[in-house]
Amino acid sequence: MKEIHHWIDGKEYKGTSGRFSDVFNPATGEVQARLSLATKAELDHAVARAAEAQVAWGATNPQRRARVMMAFVGLINRDMDKLAEALSSEHGKTFPDAKGDIQRGLEVIEFCIGAPHLLKGEFTDSAGPGIDMYSMRQPLGVVAGITPFNFPAMIPLWKMGPALAAGNAMILKPSERDPSVPLMLAQLLQEAGLPDGVLQVVNGDKDSVDAILDNPVIQAVGFVGSTPIAQYIYERAAATGKRAQCFGGAKNHMIIMPDADLDQAADALVGAGYGAAGERCMAISVAVPVGEKTADALIERLVPRIEKLKVGPYTAGNDVDYGPVVTRAAKENILRLVQSGIDQGAELVVDGRDFNLQGYENGFFVGPHLFDRVTPDMDIYKTEIFGPVLSTVRAGSYEEAIGLAMSHEYGNGTAIYTRDGDTARDFASRINIGMVGINVPIPVPLAYHTFGGWKKSGFGDLNQHGPDAFRFYTRTKTVTARWPSGIKEGGEFNFRAMD
User: Fold this and answer.
1) Looking at the predicted structure, is the pLDDT value of residue 491 above 90?
2) Residue 246 catalytic?
């Protein structure tokens, strides 16, 4: 059985805990590797070594650090297929979706090549008599990233790129479910010129998370996962004086107005709701058609599209629409929530409960489901299902539709489909949600903007990637400077007050 270990000080580091986590092939249900889980002592060792390595890395000028990012971009492109293969085999994503996962992370690394500009401070000439003031952005030191299973390339890249480009060292704790790609990325960074010890990849479970939160050397923690864990990490990090950005769950609504292009909206819903088996925090899981006529016409268009979805392993070809979910427990939870929807009175229009893929009976595949006439009191509406399940909530008016999205506890992403500019503008202005799409179903910002949700989808005041990432991974030092004046005339050394 293959064993997967840690990456510490630029080389594979075999764990000593004797504790392992199984890494499955989601398509077959078979264990394909065992992952070594770190002890607290191993985590603390990695942090101590990172702190030593960070001193020289932080003192390296930003342009040289950016050159490492530039080389890293080339190496990721070189090994794109190799990385995607490893990602698909552990996560279950289709091969094109796996490449998209890597590509969206790669775009953040490309943005980080501009770190020298992003790290510039401010300068004020003659703030007082002979006095200049300037600010510097300096790295925090050692920071940590705790990343989820659903984007095993993108989210680690979102964390490590800005953190390292800003001069920090990073402890990365990836998901135990699909750990290979983060380790491969660490190896590529070493090849790109990153000094040993600046990026440490430590695999672990809750014990490692708590060790990160309790370690006094670590100055900041970035997390993506479920809301309960996001809130736990944010509160515990704050209690120990760490900076934290923690992103949690979602229940993303897409409002379909009567004037919308319904074929376009139906296509968007199928891609946004069922892509990656629904295991995306930006997936659309709630469709809100406005008016009974709109709802009936939308359902009529959705059903044949959903019934034609091809579900299978990534090895079945690029025409597979989505693959298995990540674990058997995830599959069981999805089917439990589907049954709750039936029990609570929702209409199951497309029933994927009996989906069975010949030759892959033990895999973690879930057929597509479509609910209609869902109400806000139902569990399938309140809970993030994280599976291929789309719920339809019929609204009588635009105000009722926007009220549904605004009153939900999650506020990650949302979208509206309409031809009316006034409606779209009002929606974008009023909605209390962090990322908004107008005729765009999954409004994930590009790398030079920032990604982040509101309400219980995000904890912390700075978002991921874009300029916010460099603000998060640096702190500002402000210098007030005055050189003695009048040396040519004999010098005057008293400090005069600013006028």
Assistant:
1) no
2) no
User: Residues 57, 198: contact at Cβ < 8 Å?
Assistant: yes
Asked if 202 and 42 touch (Cβ cutoff 8 Å), the reply is yes
Helix 80-91 crosses helix 62-78 at what angle (to 10 degrees)?
A: 70
**Looking at the chain, how many residues does it have?**
499
**β-pairing, 20-25 with 30-36?**
antiparallel
Beta partners for 182?
none
The yes-or-no verdict on residue 390 having pLDDT over 70 is yes
129 and 484 Cβ atoms separated by less than 8 Å: no
Task: Determine the Cα–Cα distance for residues 103 and 101; give it in Å rounded to an integer.
Answer: 6
The pair of three-digit structure tokens given for residue 402, joined into one six-digit string: 């926007």
Q: H-helix or E-strand containing 32?
A: strand 30-36
- The whole-angstrom separation of Cα 369 and Cα 123 is 58
8 A C-beta contact, residue 144 and residue 25: no
State the Cα angle at 155 between 52 and 180, rounded to 5°: 75
Residue 495's pLDDT is 56
414 DSSP β-pair partners: 253, 436
Report residue 1's pLDDT band, with 50, 70 and 90 as the boundaries: confident
Single-letter code of the amino acid located at 407: S
The separation between CA 343 and the C-alpha centre of its own chain, rounded to angstroms, equals 33
Pairing mode of beta strands 454-455, 410-411: antiparallel
Asked whether the predicted pLDDT for residue 65 surpasses 60, the reply is yes
CA distance linking residue 250 with residue 386, whole number of Å: 9
> Quick check: 124 and 153 in contact, CB under 8 A?
no
- Give per-residue pLDDT as tens, 34-62: 999 999 999 999 999 999 999 999 999 99
**Portion of the chain with pLDDT greater than 70, in percent:** 97
Return mean pLDDT, the chain: 95
Among candidate residues 201, 218, 244, 281, the one labeled active-site is 281
